[in-house]
Design a protein that fits this description.
homodimer, mainly alpha, 10 helices, DNA-binding
DNA sequence: ACGCTAACGGACGCCCCCGTCCACTTGGCT
DNA sequence: AGCCAAGTGGACGGGGGCGTCCGTTAGCGT
């Protein structure tokens, strides 16, 4: 790949992250191209489908999510670890509308949720997590959280924080 | 108003309810017109703005909601009443995507939530509802519930039912 | 320095939705 | 039965997003 092509590719991904975060995944691809300073054709050549662009744009955020879950697993107090995971995932999703949807979609598709299941299992063993809470419940509340639309990002983040609180109450034994 | 005009108006509202329920409020107005067997102009003449159509189409459902809340208030056990309200509102919103959004929008705008506040107050007095649960929390979970998109309506309703369960746990003292 | 080819992006045609206009139809009153 | 205004809907122009084509530009290897 030529150097200018590589530059453009990087600029497109950066623009995509910005636009997807602000407007969600439904944002027009041309706005991303415009913001990246490239023509539509360049974007379409580099990323034939919207899903390809989304996947590339959010790999970093995905790793951030994995890191959050790993942090939770590393906590000797599994319930506290789970609480932190919920709070941080909610926060991340509230900040980035597009990523929230992308995460839910991939989370539902692939079962890279093994780590989450493990965390739940450990938290249950501490007796602080209800025994009937499943990974599906976690996906459910994440989905619900991503549905919290609001006028301003500030409002949305506040709502998300409160929702995380309520969620943990519902999960607690 | 002429009789045929009245007929058309009714058919438009019926079609709107169907389409809004199935596809949400973002459905194209022309599909409603087509399903009602009228031209676009007729729809636009009768309902100049989409909001006017939405408001008319959902008055019945709105009254159903009021009835649900009134039923809850009528229950001598305020906590049981509140539980029923949550479950039934969630169910109603899961069944009708469009109405869920319309309800949230109007619920946030007008404060016809006085009855809900009263129900919460009574439930708190029974000691079964946490003292810090507010009407805003109810709106929050309703909003979250309306964000539960899913492929099939069946799946969505199941998710909604489970979500109502989790919500009541979070609310319980 | 030069040419070759990868890469670019403006422009095109397509589709869908919107809101409105106007020539035609039809209900209802006399 | 006949008139006429209320009512209708097909058709139009505008706007926006999509995906692609192709003439032009510019990186890079020689």
């Amino acid at each position: 790949m030529r150097s200018d092509a590589r530059d453009n590719r990087e600029r497109i991904l950066e623009a995509a992250r910005e636009v997807f975060a602000a407007e969600g995944l439904d944002a027009p691809l041309r706005e991303i191209a415009r913001r990246a300073g490239v023509g539509p054709a360049t974007l379409y050549r580099r990323f034939p489908t919207k899903q390809a662009l989304v996947a590339e744009a959010f790999t970093e955020q995905m790793y951030a999510c994995y890191a959050i879950v790993d942090d939770g697993l590393a906590d000797p107090d599994a319930w506290r670890g789970l609480s932190a995971v919920v709070e941080r995932l909610f926060e991340l999703h509230a900040r980035d509308r597009g990523f929230a949807k992308a995460f839910i979609d991939t989370a539902a598709r692939e079962r890279g949720l093994a780590s989450l299941a493990e965390l739940l299992r450990r938290a249950e063993q501490t007796g602080k997590l209800r025994a009937d809470v499943t990974v599906d419940d976690l996906v459910l509340v994440l989905l619900a959280n991503s549905g919290l639309r609001a006028t301003s990002e500030t409002t949305r983040r506040a709502a998300s924080r409160r929702f995380a609180e309520l969620t943990l109450r519902a999960f607690a034994a």
